[in-house]
Amino acid sequence: MQDADIERATKTPSATPGQPEIATPRPLEAPGSLPRKPHPWPLILGLSGLLGAVWAIVIVSRYPNILPG
Fold it and tell me: Where is the composition biased (Basic and acidic residues) (predicted)?
């Protein structure tokens, strides 16, 4: 059994005068102030546009008379 009258120390060992205190974690911020994650759509559109440009260059180099002029 545990003795209920045991007095516990109020200071933690890191709070002694000779040692620097450990930084406490930041308080939780409101849900609306969290940083937003970037959406994948700009990356998807950019890569598909790049693929389309490469495709067009390959077609024009394969069939040089396809473009008028």
Answer: 1-10
